[in-house]
Amino acid sequence: MNLHGSIKSACQGLAVAMVVILSAALNPAQAAPIAIENAAAGKSGDTVGIFMKIVNSGGEADQLFAVKTPAAKTAKLFNPHADTSEMEHGGHDSATAIMAVDIQPGASVELSVEGRHIMLMGLAGPVESGQTIPLTLFFTNAGRIQVDVQVR
Prior knowledge:
This protein is α+β, with helices and mostly antiparallel strands. Helix content is 16%, strand content 45%. It has two domains: 1-30; 34-151, Sandwich (Immunoglobulin-like), CATH 2.60.40. Strands 1, 2, 3, 4, 5, 6, 7, 8, 9 and 10 form a ten-stranded mixed β-sheet that branches. A hairpin with a 2-residue loop joins strand 1 and strand 2 (47-56). Residues 8-29 and 86-95 have low confidence and may be disordered.
């Protein structure tokens, strides 16, 4: 390849890179910017409650629809005040298990002891104060978000 061919190839590469960068800059809502704040866990008997603030600083609504952790067989979203449109069907705990948590654009949602929260059941081992539990949160737009939650 001669010098002219090398320069032409380099320019084409730069042009492709610029298109990718501009596309990302002009379409920032492709993945809603979700932040997790104040994540904490509390043990109650043979279950662990997970509490946090989920902040959506993007311009598009998002939805937390699943949680996974190696610390428990099951991680479910719960709402003690759920109406029938939110409820997950089946099982003994269907009165409070919900399918998802919506986070509107520019808003935040608290997962708290009194309200919606994540419940870990079928713990893989003992859970002690000060221990860290790794969680993977699954969002419709933001995808997977890893968070380490400290047991209080």
